[in-house]
Design a protein that fits this description.
The complex is a heterodimer of chains A (245) and B (298).
Chain A (H helix, E strand, L loop, with lengths): L1 E5 L3 H11 L6 E6 L2 H11 L3 E5 L7 H7 L5 E6 L3 H5 L7 E4 L4 H25 L13 E6 L2 E6 L3 E7 L2 E6 L5 E2 L3 H7 L5 E3 L4 E4 L3 E6 L5 E5 L4 E4 L1 H12 L1
Parallel strand pairs in A: 1-2, 1-3, 3-4, 4-5
Antiparallel strand pairs in A: 6-7, 8-9, 8-12, 9-10, 11-12, 13-14, 14-15
Helix pairs in contact in A: 2-3
Chain B lengths: L1 H16 L7 H29 L11 H52 L2 H17 L1 H20 L6 E2 H19 L3 E6 L8 E2 L3 H13 L7 E10 L2 E9 L14 H12 L4 E8 L2 E8 L4
Parallel strand pairs in B: 2-4
Antiparallel strand pairs in B: 1-3, 4-5, 5-7, 6-7
Classes of the chains: A alpha/beta (245), B alpha+beta (298).
């Protein structure tokens, strides 16, 4: 598993490197000393895992995650950040408190490896070969809305709805907003899984419950979460074609 | 009536000046009685004088012993009731004030503990030391001693007290040495200490807190890091302590409370009254200046 360590303190990076020597499964491919450098290296090297410090000069670890389209697995490393950690749902993330306990590190790594193994198995079963430039169903995105944060894999997202300069992301029973454009997102999403229903909506095809005909040759799609989305007339033909296959 | 108000006012001042509220209850009773008699006598004489000048004096009734006693008793009663009310008011007021004072001290103590035992600093320091054990064992030993010194000083610090400037400076130096291990080339530290500084006494950990603020809100936010200077100088008002750190102070964005400055201000006020001062602002575009004046020790 290819990983990058992101921390502004040299000694902290060194300490983590030392600890990770016991884990041949984890290959440290690079290190970064701040969020900007990390952003570049993540895009360039596409690691599967990052060890991320929260408090850094310039941008914080959270701000870095918000800038990433595709978020690798993240293990936060922090000295003391009750605040930041409380922002997440339980089990939604792993974090290590510095100085890092070896037992905790072991647990965190095993967890990440297990998640990766199951994702690989799923992918093999579906026979899907991923197109590098696009986001797959198992890729996760980072969503931050006010004080709350989520890591959410694309397969769990039912609907993206544009709202001004923001996109509402529907999953579970929440719909936080992210600051992105729907067009840019549309280009990144795998069109076998997601469908641009209209100017305002992108739906996850696997979450469709019912489809009805609608005015002007459009369609009305109801999702398993209860949301109703209109498919514009222009898109309806493409949609029918896609769904009948 | 005007006489009553005037006399009670004098009595009130007398009570305050002679600290009657510090006197025990038992000792207070005879004094109180004497005061009552004196007042009622004065009051009676005053009434006689008034009637004499207004021509209402009939000359016999006023000097009748029974009549004199009766009217004295009447004014004594009035004075007595009033004085009792006033004394209890004073007691209550003083009790209240001492409670408030205690509460203020407790709050400051608590805030100090919270702000000075900064867990972020402690755990980061421990983490660097852990890495240092392998890289530079001697330096790591020294760092452990420095961290111990700081923890010891935090534990023993009493917010109302003052310590010698040299003692506080030693803590600051230990603290900055540890931060230098963490930030390495990103922090540059310099001292310019007036040799008269040791003549002064400062509240424990006050300088350390302010220096820590300079790092937390200034240098740690800068990718390239920055400089921190500690300068002291003896001036007419006392000892002037300046902390200059790279960064920018935004008064609107970062309230004083965020810097723990409010707490420091309260402490200074509690210990030195209005003789000490604390100021923070931008010295130039990229340097924050924190300045304190500590008065001469008594």
């Amino acid at each position: 598993m290819r990983a990058i360590i992101i921390d502004d303190e040299r000694l902290a990076r060194k300490e983590l490197n030392n600890l990770l020597e016991n884990y041949p499964e984890i290959e440290i491919v690079d290190q970064a000393v701040n969020a900007d450098e990390a952003l570049e290296k993540i895009i360039q090297l596409d690691p599967e895992l990052i060890f991320l410090d929260i408090q850094m000069p310039g941008k914080t670890g959270f701000e870095l995650l918000e800038e990433l389209e595709k978020v690798p697995k993240v293990i936060f490393t922090t000295a003391y950040d009750e605040f930041a950690i409380k922002a997440f749902d339980v089990n939604a993330l792993d974090y290590l408190l510095k100085p890092i306990q070896e037992e905790r590190l072991k647990d965190a790594i095993n967890k990440v490896l297990a998640v990766q193994a199951s994702a690989l198995a799923e992918r093999a079963q579906e026979g899907v070969s991923e197109i590098k430039e696009q986001l797959g169903m198992n890729d996760q995105v980072f969503v931050k809305d006010g004080d709350r944060c989520w890591f959410i894999s694309l397969k769990e997202i039912r609907l993206f709805e544009s709202d001004g300069n923001y996109i509402k992301v529907y999953f579970n029973n929440v719909k936080p907003m992210i600051h992105k454009s729907l067009n840019a997102l549309d280009e990144k999403l795998d069109e076998r899984s997601f469908f641009r229903a209209s100017r305002k909506h992108i739906i996850n095809l696997s979450w469709i419950e019912t489809i009805e005909t609608w005015f002007n040759g459009g369609l009305l799609v109801q999702l398993k979460g209860g949301e109703k989305v209109e498919v514009s007339r222009r898109q309806a033909a493409r949609f029918k074609e896609k769904m009948s296959l | 009536m005007a006489f009553m108000v005037g006399v009670t006012h004098l009595f009130r001042n007398y009570i305050i000046r002679n600290n009657w509220i510090d006197v025990k209850w038992v000792a207070l009773i005879p004094r109180f009685m004497i005061a009552m008699v004196v007042f009622s006598l004065a009051h009676y004489l005053f009434i006689i004088l008034i009637s004499f000048f207004s021509g209402n004096l009939n000359g016999i009734q006023e000097f009748n012993v029974l009549y004199v006693l009766a009217s004295m008793l009447q004014s004594m009663g009035l004075f007595g009731v009033w004085s009792l009310i006033y004394l209890s008011f004073l007691y209550f007021e003083r009790y209240n004030r001492s409670l408030k004072y205690e509460a203020a001290i407790k709050e400051i103590e608590l805030n100090n503990l919270k702000s000075q035992l900064n867990p972020h600093f402690i755990f980061n320091a421990l983490n660097s030391i852990r890495a240092l054990v392998q890289e530079d064992p001697l330096k790591s030993k020294k760092a452990i001693t420095q961290l111990s010194n700081i923890l010891r000083n935090v534990l023993k610090a009493q917010p109302q007290e003052t310590i010698a400037f040299s003692e506080e400076l030693a803590t600051v130096k230990d603290y900055l040495a540890l931060e230098a291990i963490r930030y390495e080339e990103r922090i540059e530290i310099s001292y310019e200490i007036d040799k008269h500084s040791n003549f002064f006494r400062v509240p424990p950990l006050m300088l350390q807190t302010l220096v820590e603020n300079g790092i937390k809100h200034g240098i740690s936010k800068l990718k390239k890091g920055g400089k921190l200077e500690l300068i002291t100088q003896r001036v007419a008002e006392g000892l002037q302590i300046q902390i200059k750190n790279s960064g920018k102070f935004m008064a609107t964005k970062q309230k004083k409370s965020g810097y723990g400055l409010l707490n420091t201000e309260k402490r200074l006020k509690l210990i030195y009254g209005d003789q000490a001062s604390l100021q923070i602002g931008n010295e130039n575009d990229h340097t924050v200046l924190t300045q304190i004046i500590i008065p001469e020790p008594l």
